[in-house]
Design a protein that fits this description.
Pfam family, one: LptF_LptG
Membrane topology: Multi-pass membrane protein
Strand content: 5-15%
Number of strands: 6
Distance between the termini: 62 Å
Oligomer: single chain
Subcellular location: Cell membrane
Helix content: 55-70%
Order of helices and strands: HHHHHHEEEEEHEHHHHHHH
Radius of gyration: 34 Å
Keywords: Cell membrane, Membrane, Transmembrane, Transmembrane helix
InterPro entries: LptG/LptF_permease
Length: 481
């Protein structure tokens, strides 16, 4: 039996290694293509690009592993069935369960490896890659500027523009700049229809040339009262061309391997996530309690209390407003509407903060459970791929590749769908993380059962036989009647 186990493992490992590295290469190239605009032609050294690719490889490896196991299991068992090797071993008294037993142990081992990778290597790679991107942007501050919103990465300046275009995205449209270098608020504002970056690599200054714009500066002295500021003098002018030199020397001293961001939800191990979650839940509960207390006080609910029976006035009408005159009714209604409007506005103003805090807690919660659920995907997809390969009796890269892609896409989208629902608090974090496993597990059980019973994927003849038997019973009942 040891020779048989070695033969089965050898037949599985060769396609597994080949498919794993092919899929890994495809996923890395996809990630590189998405980041191509931020890396190509920006003066970034080849060493930094290779580091980026290495961290990307470590990040996508846990995704490539389940696909490799799924595809290689379909290919291996399909090839063994196609070449009648399964039939030969069965005739020798060896069952299918005994044949695939070494592959089951291997799938369990790879699931454990995948968990260790997700729990230690993946967070490390995420942390290093994110910090590398931030440091790259600091070396090239123009890369950090994003169109459509205010950019605050450059100290003492807030810069907004509508669009980047031209060679290396150095041209800007509709530029708005708040100069905060004087530490007196937004008192110096510059706007322009067009802008252009002129800085050279290694320069300590970010040079921005503006065209067709307007300059405004409100001259405010230190310790000036707020009301008095509107009486201070202001300078304003139109310009055809205006050049700004922004000091970025503090960026050039940063080490590219410097790590500042360490506590994001996908940068922590499962133990760190488990320790962080109670603190987040305590903070969230305190926030909810604070908002509830604020609502209680704003509505004056604390002033409502039950009168003793001895103080009840006889003759009161059940409709409370009917006990007051018209002017009092109007006053009561207006006060009630005013309190309701304030409460609604209060809720509307805090809705974003409430959802943000809940979403952060959900992300940590989902990441914790997903580490275990996604690790199990290696074993789950093996129990889908192995029986499917023995049923279809087809090896090679043709049909197995199509089936593997269809199955993994279904698994990946159901996993993403579950995580997104859990992130929005539509379902719990546990349900969202394990949704894909719950949906795919019945398929694994059905395929494994049919493969061990030597049944096809679809028993069409059996369906027709059952339909025929049903009509025969109906006809016999009619004749007996």
């Amino acid at each position: 039996m040891k020779r048989l186990d070695k033969y089965i493992l050898k037949s599985f490992l060769i396609p597994f290694l080949a498919t794993f590295f092919i899929i890994l290469f495809v996923l890395v190239m996809q990630a590189l293509w998405l980041a191509f605009d931020d890396l190509a032609g920006k003066g970034i050294s080849i060493t930094i690009i290779l580091k980026f690719l290495w961290y990307t490889t470590l990040i996508v490896a846990p995704q490539a592993l389940p696909i490799g196991i799924l595809l290689s299991s379909i290919m291996t068992l399909g090839s063994l069935s196609e070449n009648y090797e399964f039939a030969a071993t069965k005739s020798a008294g060896v069952s299918l369960q005994r044949m695939v037993r070494p592959l089951v142990f291997f799938a369990v081992f790879m699931s454990a490896i995948n968990f260790v990778f997700l729990d230690y290597v993946y967070p490390y790679a995420i942390m290093k890659q994110i910090n590398l991107k931030i440091n790259i942007k600091k070396k090239q501050p123009a890369l950090a500027l994003v169109p459509g919103s205010f950019n605050t990465e450059i100290p003492n300046y807030q810069i907004k523009f509508d669009e980047k275009y031209g060679e290396d995205d150095k041209l800007l449209k509709n530029v708005l700049i708040y100069d905060l270098s004087a530490n007196r608020g937004n008192n110096k504002i510059i706007s322009a229809k067009n802008g252009e970056f002129l800085s050279e690599e290694g320069s300590k200054y970010l040079t921005l040339r503006l065209k067709n714009g307007h300059f405004f500066e409100h001259h405010v002295k230190n310790r000036t009262a707020y009301k008095e500021r509107f009486k201070m003098k202001a300078s304003y002018a139109d310009f055809d061309e205006y050049t700004i030199n922004i000091d970025i020397s503090s960026f050039s001293d940063d080490d590219m391997d410097k790590t500042k961001h360490k506590n994001n939800f996908n940068m922590l191990s499962s133990k760190q996530l488990k320790d962080t979650l109670p603190k987040l839940k305590i903070n969230y509960d305190e926030y909810v309690a604070t908002r509830a207390r604020s609502l209680y006080l704003n509505t004056n609910a604390n002033r409502l209390y039950a009168y003793p029976d001895s103080l009840k006035i006889e003759g009161l009408k059940e409709d409370i407003l009917e006990n007051f005159d018209l002017d009092s009714k109007l006053e009561i209604a207006n006060n009630a509407m005013s309190k309701i409007d304030r409460t609604i506005n209060n809720f509307t103003a805090n809705k974003g903060s409430f959802k943000h805090q809940r979403k952060i807690m959900n992300l940590y919660d989902i990441e914790f459970y997903n580490r275990f659920a996604f690790s199990l995907s290696c074993l789950l997809l093996f129990f889908i791929g192995a029986p499917l390969g023995s049923i279809i009796r087809k090896g090679g890269m043709g049909l197995p590749m199509i089936l593997a892609i269809a199955i993994y896409v279904s698994y990946f989208f159901s996993n993403t769908f579950g995580r997104n629902m859990a992130e929005e608090s539509s379902i719990s974090a546990v349900a969202g993380s394990w949704l894909a496993v719950a949906l795919m597990l019945p398929l694994a059980i059905i395929l494994t059962t049919r493969a061990t019973q030597d049944k096809g994927l679809f028993d069409i003849n059996g369906v027709f036989v059952k339909i025929g038997n049903f009509f025969k019973k109906v006809i016999l009942k009619k004749r007996e009647n």
